[in-house]
Design a protein that fits this description.
Number of helices: 27
Radius of gyration: 28 Å
Strand content: 15-25%
Cofactor: Zn(2+)
Number of strands: 33
GO molecular function: alanyl aminopeptidase activity; metallopeptidase activity; zinc ion binding
InterPro entries: Aminopeptidase_N-like_N, Aminopeptidase_N-like_N_sf, PepN_Ig-like_sf, Peptidase_M1, Peptidase_M1_dom, Peptidase_M1_pepN, Peptidase_M1_pepN_C, Peptidase_M1_pepN_C_sf
Helix content: 40-55%
Structural class: alpha+beta
Keywords: Aminopeptidase, Hydrolase, Metal-binding, Metalloprotease, Protease, Zinc
Organism: Mesorhizobium neociceri
Shape: globular
Bound molecules: arginine, zinc ion
Largest sheet: 8 strands, mixed
C-alpha cells in the first residue's frame, strides 16, 4: 500500500479522552482501553469508526457499557470497525498482548525484564485498537498494575496521580497527562530499575523533579546524562523561551532499542548507549552523543509534542527542527566551529549518498509505503539544514520572532510544513515560496562557480550556475533559492572591500542564488581576491569551483571562516586522493606534493587553532567520502591504497613534529570529558594513527593502549593496533586484554565488535562471521547487530565490497536473519547497499545478486521489501 500526501483528510472521529489499564505479565498482558469518541462536526452520520490494529486479539468490546453483538463490529488483527457508532460514546476495548515475545521492539515489549514501549511511528496499534495517527490528540490517564517484586517501578506519561498495593503481591500506579497528545507519544515503563534523582527550577520558578532510571547498579553512569538534561532545560529557556510544563521529567535507559531514543511526553525512553557513560567505558564521542541526544529528546517537548505533526509526511517538521535545535545547543556548549565541521561531515557521509542514490526523497516526502523507512538523514539532517537556511536568510532576530510566533500560533496543534513556513513569511514579509522547494524537491543542488578579475575596470565577477540532478520519480527540477555565504579574501587574509554589487541580491555576506545563472559583479576591487564560498556551509549543496591551487592553499591557511578554512584543506586532500586513485588504476605509484604534506604539518602544529579543529583537519576524507566524490566505477581497493599512501606520506613528512606534539599532548591533569580536553585527546590520537605507520609505530600504539586512563585513548589505540597492525602480537594481545577486561559490559563489547568489523582487508568477512557466534553477540539486540554487522557493511569498504562478492553474500544472509526478529533494524541495515550502482561492473553485479537474494526472502516484511525494491528500481 502506498500512502500519499494529497490523500490526507481528517478522520470522521476524534478521541478527546483515553483511559488505559495495563495488567502486566510477560506472556499475557491485559490492556483495557476506555476511549471517549466523538463524531466530528460535518462527518456523515452513517460513517463507521475504523480503528487501526497490528496483530491484536480482541477480548472484549462494549459501547457505553453495553457489550456489542458480533453483527455490530468487525475485528481482524489489523483493524476494528464499529459499524454504526453513536455521535458520542465511550468505547471499551480489551486486548491481550505478549510483551516477552515481541522481538520487533515496537509496541509494548520487554528488554532485560523491563517492560517498555516504543510507539512512534505506528507501534501504539500493537497495544490496542486506536486511531493511530498523529492528528488524533487525546488526554491520557494510565493505570498500570504489576507484581510488586517483578516491577516495583511503574511509569507513564504526565504526572503521577496515585499508587498503592493490590491483593496477592500486585500493586498499581496511575498517571495523568493533561496535555493532549498523539498516540505515538504514549509510553509505559515497568520493572526493577535504579534511580538517579535531581530537580530543576524553571524560569517561572516551578520545580520539576527529574529522574533517570537505569539498570540497578549502573546509577553511577547516569551523571553526565543528568547534567546534560539540566543544561538542555536551561538552554531552551534562554535560546527559545521554552519552559518545561509537567511536574516530573523522566528518562529511562533500556538495552534493546531500535533507534537512539524517543521523546514520549514526560517519559523519554533511551537506548542505554546514549545515557550510560564514565571515563572507563565511554569515549569522548559517546559523551558528546549523549549530550546531543538528551537535548534532542528534551527539545521535542515543544517541537514535536506541544506542536506535533498533522501526518507522517510532516515528520521533518519535528525532526529537522529539533535536530537544528540540538545542533545549536551543542554548538553553544562546545566549540561552534568544530561542531559545524562535524555536522557537515555527518551530512555528507549519510545524507549526500541518500540524495544521490535510489532512496532519494524530499525532506518532506509525498509518498511512502513504510514510514519507518523515512527516519532518514534527509528528514533529520537535511531537514535541520533547511531550518538553518531560514535563519541565514532572515537573520537571527527575525528567525527567533518566527519561532515565537510558531509556538504561539500552533501550540496544541498537529501542524504542517506550510504552517511552519508561514510564520516566517508573516514575521519577515518575505516570500518563501521558492525557498520551500528545499522541502519538496529531492537531490543535492550543485553550484558551478568561476571567477574573473579585470584590473582595468576594477571589477571582480563570479559566474555561478545552479543545477539539481534528477532523482527517482523527479526527473525535472525547479530552480532553488540557495543562500550562499561568501567572502572575498585579500592577500593578507583580510576581507576585501568592494564598492557595489550587481547580478544577484547580496546581503550580510550572503549571495542569494535564485536563477539558473548569475553573473555577480563586484565593483571597486583592485586586486584579484581569493574567494571563500559556502562559508559555514550555508547551504547543503555541492560546489564545483574553478579555483587555482594557490588560492586553495591560501584559504586553507588564512580563511577567517573556520568551516571554509577546514573545507579548503579538505578539498586539497580530496583532490590529491582522487588523483592518486587514478594513478593507482593506471598502474603508477601515487605521489603527493610536499606542499600538501607540509601544510598538514603546519595545521597540526598551529597553536592558534583549537586542538579539536586540528584533529578534524588531519582526519583525511574517509574511503566512502572519496568514493562519493569520484562518483562512479568505484574500486574500493584502489581508494584504500590511495588513502593509505597519503597517510604514510604525511606521517613521513612530519615525523619529528608529530612525535614532539604527540608527547606534549600527553594527559596531565585529571580526566575531564569537556570539549577542550576531548579535543586534545582527539589530536593526540590522530597523531598516533600517523605515527603508528613509522618505524616503532606498533610499540608506540601498544604503549598508548597500555597506559590509557580512559576509553577514548584505549579504543583509539586498539583501533590503530587492529587496523594498522592486524595480526601482530601486539594487536592480538590488546584485543584479548580488552575482551577479558570488558567481556561482561555489553556496551563496551560493542566497541570491540566495531573495531574488529572495520579491520580493512578481505579476511574480515570471516572474522565477522565468526564473531556472530561470540557469547557477547546477539542477533536480537539492535546495538550488537549495528556494532558488528552495521559497522562491517557501512564502515568497511575493502571487506564488505570484497571483489568476490563474499561480503555481500554474508550480508544478505544476515539481513534476512535479523529480519525474522526485527524488520526495522533489518531494513536499516539493508540501506548499506544503496550506492551499489556506483561500483565498478564486477562488484555491481555481485551487489545486485545480494539485493535479489534479499528481495526473494520468504515472507518479507513491508520494511525490508520497501528498501530492497526501491534500491533495485
Ligand atoms: N522520534 C525519535 C527521535 O528522533 C525517533 C523514533 C523513531 N522510531 C521509529 N521506530 N521509527 O528522537
Ligand atoms: Zn527526534
Amino acid at each position: 500500500q502506498v500512502f500519499k500526501l494529497e490523500d490526507y483528510r481528517p478522520n470522521d472521529f476524534s478521541i478527546p479522552q483515553t483511559g488505559l489499564t495495563f495488567r502486566l505479565s510477560p506472556d499475557a498482558t491485559r490492556v483495557t482501553a476506555v476511549l471517549t469518541i466523538e463524531r466530528r462536526d460535518g462527518a456523515a452520520a452513517s460513517a463507521p469508526l475504523v480503528l487501526d490494529g497490528d496483530g491484536l486479539v480482541l477480548k472484549r468490546i462494549a459501547v457505553d457499557g453495553r457489550e456489542l453483538a458480533p453483527a455490530e463490529y468487525l475485528a481482524t488483527p489489523d483493524q476494528l470497525t464499529i459499524l454504526k457508532p453513536p455521535a458520542r460514546f465511550e468505547l471499551l476495548l480489551e486486548t491481550e498482548i505478549a510483551p516477552a515475545s515481541n522481538e520487533a521492539l515496537m509496541g509494548l515489549y520487554r528488554s532485560s525484564n523491563v517492560y517498555c514501549t516504543q510507539c512512534e511511528a505506528e507501534g501504539f496499534r500493537r497495544i490496542t485498537y486506536f486511531l493511530d495517527r498523529p492528528d488524533i490528540l487525546s488526554v491520557y490517564t494510565v493505570r498500570i498494575e504489576a507484581q510488586l517484586d517483578e516491577a516495583p517501578l511503574l511509569l507513564s506519561n504526565g504526572n503521577p496521580v496515585e499508587s498503592g498495593a493490590l491483593a496477592e503481591g500486585w500493586h498499581y500506579a496511575v498517571w495523568h497527562d493533561p496535555f493532549p497528545k498523539p498516540s505515538y507519544l504514549f509510553a509505559l515503563v515497568a520493572g526493577n530499575l535504579g534511580q538517579v534523582a535531581d530537580s530543576f527550577v524553571t524560569m517561572s520558578g516551578r520545580e520539576v523533579e527529574l529522574g533517570i532510571y537505569v539498570e540497578p547498579g549502573k546509577e553511577g553512569l547516569a551523571g553526565h546524562a543528568m547534567d546534560a538534561l539540566k543544561r538542555s532545560m536551561q538552554w531552551d529557556e534562554q535560546a527559545f523561551g521554552r519552559e518545561y510544563d509537567l511536574d516530573v521529567f523522566n528518562i529511562v535507559a533500556v538495552s534493546d532499542f531500535n533507534m537512539g531514543a524517543m521523546e514520549n511526553k514526560g517519559l523519554n525512553i533511551f537506548n542505554d548507549k546514549y545515557v550510560l557513560a564514565d571515563r572507563e567505558t565511554a569515549t569522548d564521542a559517546d559523551f558528546a552523543n549523549i549530550e546531543a541526544i538528551i537535548a534532542h529528546e528534551y527539545f521535542h517537548n515543544w517541537t514535536g509534542n506541544r506542536i506535533t505533526c498533522r501526518d507522517w509526511f510532516q515528520l521533518c517538521l519535528k525532526e529537522g527542527l529539533t535536530v537544528f535545535r540540538d545542533h545549536e545547543f551543542s554548538a553553544d556548549q562546545r566549540s561552534r566551529a568544530v561542531k559545524r565541521i562535524a555536522e557537515v561531515r555527518t551530512l555528507r557521509a549519510h545524507q549526500f549518498p541518500e540524495d544521490q542514490g535510489p532512496l532519494a526523497h524530499p525532506v518532506r516526502p509525498r509518498r511512502y509505503r513504510e514510514i519507518n523507512n523515512f527516519y532518514t538523514a534527509t528528514v533529520y539532517e537535511k531537514g535541520s539544514e533547511v531550518v538553518r537556511m531560514i535563519r541565514t536568510i532572515l537573520g537571527s532576530q527575525t528567525f527567533r520572532a518566527g519561532m515565537d510566533l510558531y509556538f504561539e500560533r500552533h501550540d496544541g496543534e498537529a501542524a504542517t510544513i506550510e504552517d511552519f513556513l508561514k510564520v516566517f513569511e508573516d514575521v519577515s514579509g518575505r516570500d518563501l515560496s521558492q525557498f520551500a522547494l528545499w522541502y519538496h524537491q529531492a537531490g543535492t543542488p550543485n553550484l558551478t562557480v568561476s571567477s574573473t578579475h579585470n584590473p582595468v575596470t576594477r571589477e571582480f565577477t563570479l559566474e555561478i550556475e545552479q543545477s539539481v540532478p534528477p532523482t527517482p520519480s523527479e526527473s525535472r527540477k525547479r530552480l532553488m533559492h540557495i543562500p550562499l555565504a561568501f567572502g572575498l579574501v585579500g592577500a593578507g587574509g583580510e576581507p576585501v572591500a568592494y564598492g557595489g554589487v550587481e547580478g544577484a541580491t547580496v546581503e550580510d555576506g550572503v549571495i542569494h542564488i535564485r536563477k539558473r545563472r548569475h553573473l555577480v559583479r563586484f565593483s571597486g576591487v583592485d586586486e584579484r581576491p581569493a574567494v571563500s564560498l559556502n562559508r559555514g556551509f550555508s547551504a547543503p549543496i555541492t560546489l564545483s569551483v574553478e579555483q587555482k591551487a594557490d588560492d586553495q592553499f591560501f584559504l586553507a591557511g588564512h580563511d577567517s571562516d573556520a568551516f571554509a578554512r577546514w573545507q579548503a584543506f579538505n578539498t586539497l586532500l580530496t583532490d590529491a586522493l582522487i588523483a592518486a586513485f587514478r594513478q593507482i588504476l593506471g598502474g603508477a605509484k601515487p605521489v603527493f606534493s610536499a606542499r600538501l604534506t607540509g601544510l598538514a604539518g603546519k595545521i597540526a602544529g598551529d597553536e592558534t587553532l583549537e586542538p579539536a579543529y586540528r584533529a578534524l583537519a588531519l582526519a583525511l576524507p574517509g574511503e566512502a567520502d572519496i568514493a562519493r566524490d569520484i562518483g562512479r566505477n568505484i574500486d574500493p581497493d584502489a581508494i584504500f591504497t590511495a588513502r593509505e599512501a597519503l597517510v604514510l606520506a604525511i606521517a613521513r613528512a612530519n615525523q619529528d613534529a608529530f612525535t614532539k606534539l604527540y608527547g606534549r599532548l600527553a594527559e596531565d591533569g585529571p580526566f575531564s570529558p569537556d570539549a577542550a580536553s576531548a579535543g586534545r585527546r582527539a589530536l593526540r590520537n590522530i597523531l598516533l594513527d600517523y605515527l603508528s605507520l613509522l618505524p616503532g609505530g606498533v610499540e608506540l600504539a601498544a604503549r598508548h593502549f597500555e597506559t590509557a586512563t580512559n576509553m577514548t585513548d584505549r579504543a583509539a589505540a586498539l583501533t590503530v593496533l587492529a587496523h594498522r597492525h592486524d595480526g601482530s602480537p601486539e594487536a592480538i594481545k590488546a584485543l584479548a586484554g580488552f575482551e577479558a577486561r570488558y567481556g561482561a559490559d555489553p556496551l563496551v563489547m560493542g566497541k570491540w565488535f566495531q573495531i574488529q568489523a572495520s579491520v580493512p582487508g578481505p579476511k574480515t568477512v570471516e572474522t565477522v562471521r565468526a564473531l556472530t557466534g561470540h557469547a557477547a553477540f546477539s542477533m536480537a539486540n539492535p546495538n550488537r547487530v549495528r556494532s558488528l554487522i552495521g559497522t562491517f557493511s557501512s564502515a568497511n569498504q575493502t571487506s564488505f565490497h570484497r571483489a568476490d562478492g563474499e561480503g555481500y553474500r554474508f550480508f544478505a544472509q544476515t539481513v534476512l536473519e535479523v529480519e525474522k526478529r526485527n524488520p526495522q533494524v533489518a531494513a536499516r541495515l539493508a540501506t548499506a547497499l544503496r550506492s551499489w550502482r556506483s561500483l565498478e561492473p564486477g562488484r555491481q553485479a555481485k551487489a545486485r545478486e545480494a539485493l535479489l537474494a534479499i528481495a526473494n526472502g520468504e515472507n518479507l516484511s513491508a520494511d525490508l521489501r520497501d528498501i530492497v525494491e526501491r534500491t533495485l528500481a
